[in-house]
Amino acid sequence: MKLVQYCMSKKDEWDAFVRGCRNTHFFFQRDYMEYHADRFDDYSLMLYDDRGRLACVLPANRAEDVVYSHGGLTFGGFLIDNKFSTQQMLEAFSAVKEYLRNNQIVKLVYKCMPYIYFRYPSEEDRYALYLNNARLVRRDVSSTIYLPKRLSYSTLRKRMINKAAKAGLHLQQSGNLKGYWEVLTQVLRQQHGVSPVHTAEEITKLAVLFPENIKLYTATRHNEILAGALIYDNGHIVHAQYLANSEDGRRLGALDLVIHYLIDEVFKNRLYFDFGISNERQGRYLNTGLIAQKEGFGARAVIHDFYEIVIS
User: 2-133 falls under which CATH superfamily?
Assistant: First the structure.
């Protein structure tokens, strides 16, 4: 395989290929990856087969002598199309290892894509990782609902949804990202002493670039935002992040109602509704309170694996 490092002149080719992959996400589009280009030294790779056809790409960044796939994204790994075979995956790993070795890279940190994001089975890389003596260094647990056959809500979740419904809250898709970010920032600081990873300006920019993929849903009362969820819509799977519940929202069960609205109405015809991880400390600590809330909606575990390959 012929390997080249991504450059801006290949943006259209990259984006067209990524859109057609059987394991993909909109955040692998270059407009998304490059919103934080100042924080990550891009080291994305493109591999071509013997006929000159683009066969796979590897979104990646470099930090000194380590390459990550990708440090600024939830997960990464090789993105492949329907024609890509297991044998080609082994060849791709060999080509990448040789390229990294020749460029004084000592380690590749490979973040596997969870199967729920596959359009078609795509675990060729798991086999290649095994053959290349990759070491599992981190395992996170995400919580996901299989929407065609949902499990029942817990008694507590049902009670909070009913309470919020009686309070007459207004549910809607909202364009008020700035107002929601003020609520979100306050909640995160008060409850966890942290700030959102994205600033209001960054998430607004991304929402403008990807209006069909990044959507905000809120519960309001008298035009006051009480709770909400930012949705990353990736076709058959939607991922909820930046969930927030104000003090009044917690009292009324506003966030429970927002989640129920998304699961039961807005995205009921999709395959998966994913809440994301409930881990800290490189997967070694489970936030039991957080995961209990997600499991109360019928979500169950999906694993995110991180591997390391020593190059030299």
Answer: Gcn5-related N-acetyltransferase (GNAT) (3.40.630.30)
